[in-house]
Amino acid sequence: DAGITQSPRYKITETGRQVTLMCHQTWSHSYMFWYRQDLGHGLRLIYYSAAADITDKGEVPDGYVVSRSKTENFPLTLESATRSQTSVYFCASRSLSSLKETQYFGPGTRLLVL
Amino acid sequence: AQKITQTQPGMFVQEKEAVTLDCTYDTSDPSYGLFWYKQPSSGEMIFLIYQGSYDQQNATEGRYSLNFQKARKSANLVISASQLGDSAMYFCAMREEGTGANNLFFGTGTRLTVIP
Q: What integer is the mean pLDDT of B99-111?
């Protein structure tokens, strides 16, 4: 299917475990982003990528790792999950076709860390 | 300092009435874009409307319009003829074009409830 997909949609894990959230887009957008959504904070940027093999930190990167070996995939890894990483995670992508181009969001992954 | 401020945690509106959701922003970048997103209870983020900092006219998209007051740094969303399906969280966001990240800065959102 065309668009941006995330997997899994729901995940329960325990503190200390490694978790990888997947993101896949079919548009060949240059930019991809990971946000987390928490009550009272809106969405905050974790990491972003301007192209394959180019990634950089956002506002809240601690405890997360990303990679982008292919344009269409942008996985987010929690190396050792903590309860504070319980959140809803959104992946997004954007082309550079115009300034008004919006970001397109995936459906989100709800992560619960016990 | 917060880049995007939404001061209304919750709003109520009667069906078929208009409602304004407030958003103020803070940036020193002369080139920026302002966005509004809707997040229904199902959780997805739905793009509603965009306003560029150099746009001379206020943006409109169907029942949505953006009241852009550049000097006041405000970008309020106006929803006309509210419908029950408009009940959702609404987020204001900004992208500063001068940065390399191209990411969006979000406000904390306003929960709109449409009353029948």
A: 86
